[in-house]
Amino acid sequence: MTTARDIDVRPAIDTTLVRRLVDAQFPQWADLPLRLLDPAGSDHVIHRLGDDLSVRLPRHAGAIGQAEKEEFWLPRLAPHLPLAVPVPVAVGRPALGYPWPWAVSRWLDGEVATADGIGDSAEAAGELAAFLRALQGIDVREGVPAPGPAAPLAERDRATRAAIAAYGDDFGADAMTELWDAALDAPERWEPAVWFHGDFHTGNLLTVGGRLHAVIDFGSLGVGDPAVDLMVAFTLLSPSARAVFRDALDVDEATWLRGRAWALATGLNAHTAYAADHPRIAAQTTRQIRAALAG
Q1: Band of pLDDT at residue 146, cut at 50, 70 and 90
Q2: Topology of the domain covering 112-294
Q3: Binning pLDDT at 50, 70 and 90, where does residue 278 land?
Q4: Domain boundaries, the chain
Q5: Could you give the C-alpha distances from 139 to 85, 144, 194, 195, in angstroms and in order?
Q6: What is the mean pLDDT of residues 227-249?
Q7: Burial class (CB in 10 A: 0-12, 13-18, 19+), 60
């Protein structure tokens, strides 16, 4: 469980530490070469271990628990899904001054999906919709403690309105406020809760040969309203491909509206945190916010 004391913990992680952790806890891999993957995202430091494995250490408290979650759930969900997902191999223990569990998984080949690469692809849009349909169709069985739901949009209200005020001149404060208010007022989902990925965007999709191959990073996996996973339509897809995606999922207006608001809120959050120092993230989040406003 993450505590208040954990929130600001940012352990120093380098290849020497990862080597020592692997060698001490998994001596069968001590002879495998270890190579830092950079950049690897904001949540984990990732190393490639030999040709077939990866080692992921959480950078911050927000990523605690992903190793155990993926180890438990992904083997149960993977047989039902049409795209590859990570295959957990082992969970490492806190040691040598590193405070949290960490993961060893099978290496997944591929390049991070980009809007330039597949954003206009109707085929990719259909494959994304098929993945979500398959995920949402997996039984949420009683007696097995599923991960909890995503925090509702309302819990992001204060931070989102602050970001709207900060970036109103860039994106249009009135348009952002109108979308946000409409989403908060939209009818709630009444159907039974379903599985969602929770962080379903371009950075967590891999392509091989220009086609979708894998979905990664299930740290936000949960059960609840699937609108959170619609953010992929605004982080990756062009307007025409977005229409294919929506039709394939048969998304109602209220759910689509909540999905647009998730894309707006997460885009503004990332823009606030990273855009000033990272031009690539600034471009991505600008595209995401403008796509969410366009619908």
Answers
A1: low
A2: Aminoglycoside 3'-phosphotransferase; Chain: A, domain 2 (3.90.1200)
A3: confident
A4: 4-108, 112-294
A5: 18, 11, 8, 8
A6: 97
A7: middle
Name the least confident of 154-163, 185-194, 216-225, 260-269.
Answer: 185-194
Q: Are both 4-108 and 112-294 of the same fold?
A: no
How far is 260 from 266, CA to CA, in rounded Å?
10
How is residue 216 written in tokens?
């990664």
Question: Which distant-in-sequence residues (6+ apart) come within 8 Å of 4 by Cβ?
Answer: none
Measuring CA to CA, how many Å separate 232 from each of 25, 108, 189, 208?
A: 37, 20, 19, 18
Q: From the CB of residue 146, how many other CB atoms can be counted at a distance below 10 Å?
A: 15
Is the Cα dihedral 128, 228, 280, 84 positive or negative? negative
Q: Assign domain 4-108 to its CATH superfamily.
A: Phosphorylase Kinase; domain 1 (3.30.200.20)
Distance between CA atoms of residues 148 and 145, nearest Å: 9
Phi, psi at 133, each rounded to 5°:
-60, -40
pLDDT digits (tens, 9 = 90+) for 2-38: 333 444 678 999 999 999 999 999 999 999 999 999 8
CA–CA dist 259, 33 (Å, integer): 42
- Has residue 145 got a pLDDT over 90? no
